[in-house]
Specification:
Layout lengths: L7 E5 L4 H10 L5 E6 L10 E5 L5 H8 L4 E4 L9 H22 L3 E7 L23 H20 L2 E7 L9 H6 L3 H13 L5 E6 L11 H5 L25 H4 L6 H4 L11
Parallel strand pairs: 1-2, 1-4, 2-3, 4-5, 5-6, 6-7
Helix pairs in contact: 1-6, 2-3, 3-4
């Protein structure tokens, strides 16, 4: 398998908060990086090139992926929006990324998924990557679509994907829930590198979480691939991380893994599944 030094990598959403943090670590290690976004980056390195492309535009995405060895897909709405917006950006966008990869012969995708794919599991349950999806929102549901799309394109086209169910990727830990699910940019970059280069990737799902958390998730797949978190959530915690979060329905928000995402639109009746 290629090393990063020999790879041209496209990062959709590369101008965003997570994309920028990853680029600071990964771009110096890559042969070349294409920043695919509708917003220009604040600055670029010598080996970075910005291409203004909306992932809803398949033809433009195909052109942007020509000559690319791997894709990191981060573009999309990061929170709950209307069904129309969610379908246009998150669902159509991820479909186009995989179709553009197929048409241009890109063999690797690192898919930025989300913990909200399994947000309606209780915090007392230990959830592996093969557990049935239980999305907590339209946002989470769109990430389920993305994961299933990755599976389809592995089965039909042999495109290898590392699906990373990202926890909380903010620079600091600011809530009790974040202590459990936080991931540093350095650890996310490590997982991303595994996704782009490891020979055992097929359509593989892992959790994006640093040390000090992760007691809700079985991340043994990531460990088998060589993932060794370098950072601990508690070391990046602010005073707010140790204070209860305000919630209109704490019996929902504090019970389920998805937190506030579970509360939105919820009728307040606690329900469990067999």
């Amino acid at each position: 398998m290629q090393s990063l030094e020999a790879m041209t990598v496209a990062i959709t959403g590369g101008s965003g908060r997570v994309g920028k943090a990853l680029r600071e670590i990964l771009s110096p290690l890559c042969k070349a990086v294409r920043i695919i976004d509708i917003v220009p980056p604040e600055k670029t390195l010598q080996n970075e090139r910005y291409i203004n492309v909306d992932t809803a535009n398949l033809d433009a995405l195909v052109a942007a992926f020509e000559g690319v060895d791997g894709v990191i897909h981060l573009a999309g709405l990061p929170t709950e929006k209307s069904i129309e917006e969610t379908l246009h950006v998150n669902v159509l966008g991820v479909n186009n990324v995989y179709e553009a990869a197929r048409r241009t012969g890109v063999g690797r995708v690192v898919l930025g998924s989300s913990n909200h794919v399994v947000g309606f599991y209780p915090r007392t349950e230990y959830v592996g990557p093969d557990a049935p999806m239980r999305p907590d929102s339209l946002y989470g549901l769109s990430k389920c679509w993305g994961e299933l799309t990755a599976g389809l394109y592995w089965d039909k086209a042999g495109i290898r994907s590392l699906i990373i169910r990202i926890g909380n990727a903010f620079p600091q830990v600011t809530s009790p829930r974040s202590i459990e699910i936080w991931i540093s940019a350095r650890d996310l970059a490590q997982l991303t590198t595994i996704g782009l280069t490891h020979e055992d990737i097929t359509c593989t799902t892992v959790y994006g979480v640093s040390a000090g958390g992760g007691s809700w998730w079985d991340n043994s797949v990531a460990e088998r691939l060589g993932y060794k978190p370098q950072d601990r959530s508690i070391d990046f915690a602010t005073p707010e991380a140790f204070k209860p979060q305000a919630s209109e329905k704490p019996e929902i928000t504090e019970f389920f893994q998805g937190g506030i995402f579970c509360e939105w639109g919820h009728d307040g009746k606690l329900r469990l599944r067999d």
